[in-house]
Amino acid sequence: MIFFKKPEEPSQVSEETKDLDKLQERIQNAQLPPAVSSVAMKELEKLRSTDPSVAEYSIGINYLDFLISLPWNRYTEDNLDLERAQKILDQEHHGLRHVKDRILEYLATRTLCSLQPFRILVVDDEQIARTNLEYVLRKEGYEVDTAENGLEAFEKVRKREFDLVLADLKMDKMDGLQLLEAVKKISPATETVIITGYATVSTAVEALQKGAVHYLSKPIKLDELRKLVADIRVKRRHLQIARGPILCFSGPPGTGKTSIGRSIAHALGRKFVRMSLAGLRDESELRGHRRTYVGAMPGRIIQEIKKLGVKNPVFMLDEIDKVGQDFRGDPASVLLEILDPEQNNQFVDYYLDVPFDLSAVMFIGTANMVEKLPRPLLDRLEVIEFQGYTEREKISIARNFIIPRQLREHGLREKEIRFEDESIKTVIREYTREAGVRGLEREVATLCRKIARLYLADPSNKEVGDITPEVVRELLGPPKYELEVAAAKHRIGVTTGLVWSEVGGEIIFVEAARMRGSQQLILTGSLGTILKESAQTALSYVRSHAEELGIDPDFFKDSDIHIHIPAGAIPKDGPSAGLTIVLALVSLLTQRPARRDVALTGEVTLSGRILPVGGVREKILAAQRSGVRCVVFPERNRPDVAGLEEDVLLDLEVVFAGEVTDVVDLALLPRS
Ligand code: ADP
């Protein structure tokens, strides 16, 4: 049988050709970097000979479309006015003095670096060419030095840093390409432009492959030269601002990390984007998939950059400590490749397949617990700590920021709706239990929604205007939290402890029970390894010091001991519950009730010494939130407590102890 090829319809052929011509025009107008432009043109040529009905054709078209629309050369101009930056940070955030200071210092350093004069080294073996270039560039305000050949230039680059080397291709001793390679080795950040004669365009392409930013053909057109150098300077300036340590904000949720990031972008006049890395499992989510199948897509980083349309946003990578446990490969090296301006100027997205320079992006990481980050990554980060807020701070934040914003967002007028301080306190105490203010903001939003509805129904309703604690309770329903400690009874075998986790400080209760058995220690409540070991140590301590503690030394002989820490669904770990466990046991075995309103924290050794703990401020704030009136800290935490603001310690008694025996009479009531 003979198959005849169906003749192609002429109109269809021309449609596709037209499309490709349009693409070609876009490539030419897109001001792509030369290396990218040549990749795009090659891809286009391939498409011209590809049958439009096969999958490769549409993959190719989509690819080119994506490539062209990336912001290869688009920046927003940075605003480096520090006074203005400070004003914006203050206007948008209450307190956070140390955070704001660190950010302003950081911006000041970056700004100074970016204002350094732009240094150019002109390398040409012809005296006249050197002099001409030097004259033109000096007139533009650059600092210019010259060298006669590659070797001399190399020596100069070795001695001081240049931003740009303009090198002739053909020179004696060391030619332009050799110089380019040598410079890349000793000063990777220095850019090189190669100047070629007419006949050596192919060498120019080689230069680009070896890392030159651009090439210029002789005779040099001055306008082209001026524009090129100005572009490189802009790029360098943006890079200088993003260079240096990578900022990482660490602290409990809702303490303003994201919103400070947004303010930094606002202050600098940059665009802002935020992306969470929680649960990230595969590098390809960040770096994209190779274009081997129809659904292949670029990674999230490049997609966001395309959406923003500029090369220098503030890019917040949230929860870098929560990259999935089962991440394939080494998350630290992948993250560094993305975050570190020394490495990310050649960022390769697998879909894109040509390097995209991310070095002008200002990356900021956030983490709830930096301790969880891999060491190599942590070493490159400048960690700025965000802390939990005191009740007074929360009230100020609510009054000055959250309430006005929520009222606005719900179409309510500030003048007409008045929140009393007591009402804000009611929301904080009865409807939230957190270190930050995220829950507070959510509850205020709920209130505003309900008020808006009531207000619409009857604008003259006086109750709607004055928000009293009663109105809050009426609108938000039964309280979600109570001051659990203040309300609780003192019990035998139940002690109150303070722990520190990624959501800030928290209060825990440790329960101990004894029953007839065969010397088993039963531990329940999702306890981690360290916590289990603390419990074993606590039991051994009590057994070995029984007499001193007034306990029958044979108490364990025909018994089992069970230690339980409620809220079993939440995994718990860390050594600082040791003291709380010891006292639960002592309370149980002496039958002395434990005071609920005394909260304990400290690691305990086998000999009964109490070792210092972390998270002091967060723990004290948690104690305040739960109505605890007395907290016991290890003696060696005294300096940490001394450094806290008055507000944090308000209405709280802090006791320091070096040995378990110092705590017994304080935490346990006499036997009744
Ligand atoms: P995080 O990123 O630390 O989890 P967010 O930045 O999302 O927290 O903050 C939660 C909310 O609380 C935001 O609406 C933020 O504006 C507000 N907020 C937090 N801290 C402050 C502060 N110091 N001043 C004003 N508003 C704040």
From TrEMBL:
Reaction equations catalysed: Hydrolysis of proteins in presence of ATP
The Lon proteolytic domain, residue ranges: 489-670
Pfam family name, one: Lon_C
MF terms (GO), sorted A to Z: ATP binding; ATP hydrolysis activity; ATP-dependent peptidase activity; serine-type endopeptidase activity
Record carries keyword GTP-binding: no
Keywords recorded for this protein, A-Z: ATP-binding, Hydrolase, Nucleotide-binding, Phosphoprotein, Protease, Serine protease
Domain of life according to the entry: Bacteria
EC number from the UniProt entry: 3.4.21.53
Keyword flag ATP-binding: yes
Active site residues per record: 576, 619
Residues modified as 4-aspartylphosphate: 168
GO biological process annotation, one example: proteolysis
Occurrences of domain Response regulatory (ranges): 119-233
The family this protein is said to belong to: Belongs to the peptidase S16 family.
Name the record gives this protein: endopeptidase La
Protein source organism: Thermodesulforhabdus norvegica
